[in-house]
Amino acid sequence: MRPRNLADQVADVIVDGIAGGALRPGQRLVETELARQLQVSRVPLRESLKMLEAQGILESEPHRGTHVAEFGETKMDQICEARVALERLALRSALPAYRAEPERIERLDAIIADMERAAERLDWAAISRADLSFHREICAVSGNAVVATLWETLARHVLIVFGHEIRDERDAAILGPQHRRVREMLLNADMADLENEIEQHILRLRGRRKARRRTVAS
Fold first, then answer.
1. What are the boundaries of each domain within the chain?
2. What are phi and psi of 39, to 5 degrees?
3. pTM for the whole structure
4. DSSP 102
5. Model confidence pLDDT, tens digit, residues 105-119
6. Which parts of the chain register pLDDT below 70?
7. How far is Cα 83 from Cα 151, in angstroms, rounded to an integer?
8. Cα(80)–Cα(56) distance, rounded to whole angstroms?
9. Superfamily for 73-217?
């Protein structure tokens, strides 16, 4: 395994920890402890920390070391809005690709099936990974390498946003149908309707999160 690949994997594990709540906003990351816990040398770990710092997931300050960045409402809103813009761009190329080769939709069917199995177990980590895989596949089919690269960088932020969402059994039950609707529209809807659907699809949980927090505050 090349060091770069290992560094990417370590970065993903750190992001999983943030999304799952094992690593909290503001928490300091100590290299020696992380290297021991992840059973890796400090060289790929340092590369991972630099990578995540460049992406804004970690922050480093003199005399404070490296710590987990805060993910407040404004930042999460910006992540969702950036994701909408990127995925709408991806759809412009993905839609004709799916129409020309409808067999490509089978990959989305497999991902939805994984998502629904995870939903039955209320395995939110697996559900989140399946959700990302669904949208990653659409970006890949688009053939737009720039969008795919930018989306991949944003994916780690999206996973952390998922970790902040308040979800329950009702959410698990509707995730499969929501993604099946997007899947059907890739084959049958026009571009304007699909772009509108993907925007609502991405922003739906954001609206619910804010509504619940307003209820708690009152």
1. 3-68, 73-217
2. 60, 50
3. 0.87
4. G
5. 999 999 999 999 999
6. 1-4, 166, 205-218
7. 7
8. 15
9. GntR ligand-binding domain-like (1.20.120.530)
